[in-house]
Amino acid sequence: MLINPAATTGLTLRSPVGSDDRNTPPGPGSGAGAGAHGLQSERPKAIVIGTGFGGLASAIRLAVRGYEVQVFEKLDGPGGRAYVHKRDGFVFDAGPTIITVPFLLEELWALCGKRLQDDIDLRLMAPFYRIRFDDGTHFDYTGDPQAMREEIAKISPSDVPGYDRFMAMADRCYEKGFVKLGPIAFDRISILLKAIPILGQMKAWLSLHQLVASYFKHPKLRAAFSLQSLLIGGNPFSVTAAYALIASLERRFGVYSAMGGTGRIIDHLVGLLVEQGGAVRYNSPVQTISVQRIGGKARATGVVLSNGERHEADLVVCNGDAAWTYRHLIAPEFRRHWTDRKIERGQYSMSLFVWYFGTKRKYPDVPHHMMVLGPRYEALLKDIFKRKVLADDFSLYLHRPSATDPSLAPEGCDCFYVLAPVPHLEGTTDWHAHAEPYRKAVAQRLSETVLPGLEEEVVCSILTTPQDFQDRLWSFKGSGFGLEPTLLQSAYFRPHNRSEDIERLFMVGAATHPGAGVPGALISAKVLDQVVPAAQELALRR
Fold first, then answer.
1. Cys staple from 78: which of 51, 238, 347, 397, with CB 3.0 to 4.6 Å?
2. How far apart, in Å, are the Cα atoms of 436 and each of 11, 184, 397, 399, 441?
3. By three-state DSSP, how is residue 76 classified?
4. What is the pTM of this model?
5. Helix (H, G, I), strand (E, B), or coil: what is residue 365?
6. Beta strands 369-372 and 129-132: pairing type?
7. Using the 8-state DSSP alphabet, how is residue 397 labeled?
8. Cis peptide leading into 285, omega within 30 of 0?
């Protein structure tokens, strides 16, 4: 239930709030307006759209490989869905709140000749998260196998043996799905054909919940070991069982939170890029990806900003939502594969209602991460994903980062966000009318369960609805994670990292292969190393 604002870092990469030009200083030969007057550098130029994890990781990798890199960001600061809200002394990470597989970040620092631990203080969560059931009992989810067996025994002793068998299967999915298939550019049918036997070994034809149910009988445990697919926008009753790999990832590498918030990582990624000669411009939404017919083939040649500026490039990398990008940023005549009809017919992930709030008191009994489940599991997910109706009940993800880092809230206060999976905008909910009543219902539920007296304690409040996902983040239908990661919308069937329609256009981030989540976004950038030509090679083709 995580999605998939930058904390103070000491980096002087953004002008003060209120400035008209909150841009990073340009690197050598990468003046912000260079592209408007043609290619002025001997190095090939890459334009990256968006400063989410995928966009910044791609920009760093391209800069290290010798490209002149210019990044354009629609918002007034970096992060995309990992933006940071700062208000009244509270610091709220807008999106991702946990870090798993930290070696993917370590790789980026190493490429720049640095060490992650010198810049980022990652703290292991204990527990990883608490799952509170509707009857008030809870399950502390950790990476300690014996502690997990004890937690399972409290609920259903007969299910304890199933845990080790499930984890063996999760480890298989990790080895086959994450290690073997994750970093592959699934853009040729021959790659898909080679992957089919591997998919079979992961029982990928089953849903995640079906796989979990074959190892656990108690409904609470079936929920506790299948809800993880919501972290990447997938209904446990429809996503492929291959996503059991999440359980293995968490146990192998741990679940961490960054001191200063996830935004601290984003700010340092911007810093790495600038040190490699790259530049970032904020408040610069891309209106169109420029495409020309060259040698009979469509080729990306740059971008046009909403203010009319034209910037040329040798290639374009888009970290935006893939469906929105193809539907709104690229002319239909250049989209033989991603037609309007195909985009509209896609099965999209749920959206998210997120309430960021600060309290004038602390709640010391609430852990850093907590799932507060409602009375229904499968039926609620059916309402969200299938019926697309806003139900009266909900299951919530509650994030209390000040439990680990008190600096994120004023002294004596706590900062939170609470997230509810909700239908995307294909449903009929009018969020302009329903946002505040829904917030009040969420607040009442939290007050009745884990945050007593909440409604009298709130001193800071920010809301994000599915409408904001569409209007502010340009997410198609306001979905939180792009296409839902079902079997037939994963790997080869997901938008390719190398565009199917347009040469020298590349896609990264949650809505492309391998999928949502911070690890998925970072791997999508790593895949570019396979499909983007070396800078020297591209320079010779000019």
1. 51
2. 36, 44, 18, 20, 9
3. coil
4. 0.90
5. coil
6. parallel
7. E
8. no
